[in-house]
Amino acid sequence: MSQSPCQDAAPRAYTRLPASVLYILRSEGLATAALTAILYSRTGASWWIFVVLWLVPDLSMLGYFAGPYWGSRIYNAVHAYTLPATLALCALLVRNDTLIPFALIWANHIAVDRVLGYGLKYPSKFGWTHLGAVGRETKPTT
């Protein structure tokens, strides 16, 4: 079986993002985190549910037990806004208001991750993200 073309993309394509781009991306995360928290407060759902479920998306890191390729795909799928937005849209379409708080918690988690600099993962290494390197490594080794 052949490897994905992006399997080793990080070592070739890794560059440090300009500070202005990081500022914009993190500002978007902050705005989204604030908006989702405000909307959550208007749902009337318990803040205990928010606290208990907030880290649930990080369970997607368990995908790394299947290797970095599948781990990054699973992590990225769960840490993109597509799935919580789809959940919210479906909840609105079927008029199921009980699902909206879950979508907001999920989106808030993603937004806070972006504010903290945790981005979507490259399959080459867990610490390489679309927002730059995270963790102890400041640059990849080639």
Provide the succession of SSEs: HHHHHHEE
Strand content: under 5%
Oligomer: single chain
Which structural class do you get from the secondary structure elements? mainly alpha
Shape: globular
Mean pLDDT: 86
Structural domain count: 1
End-to-end separation in angstroms reads: 24 Å
Count of individual beta strands: 2
Q: Which percent bin holds the helix content?
A: 40-55%
How would you describe the overall organization of this protein?
The structure is a single chain. Strand 1 (128-129) and strand 2 form a beta hairpin. Helix 2 packs antiparallel against helix 6 (100-116) and helix 5 runs antiparallel to helix 6 (100-116). This protein has 142 residues and is an all-alpha fold. It has one domain (19-133). It has helices spanning 9-13, 19-43, 47-53, 68-78, 82-93, 100-116, and strands at residues 128-129, 132-133. The longest helix has 25 residues, at 19-43. A two-stranded antiparallel sheet has the order 1-2. The chain is built from six helices and two strands; from the N terminus they run H-H-H-H-H-H-E-E.
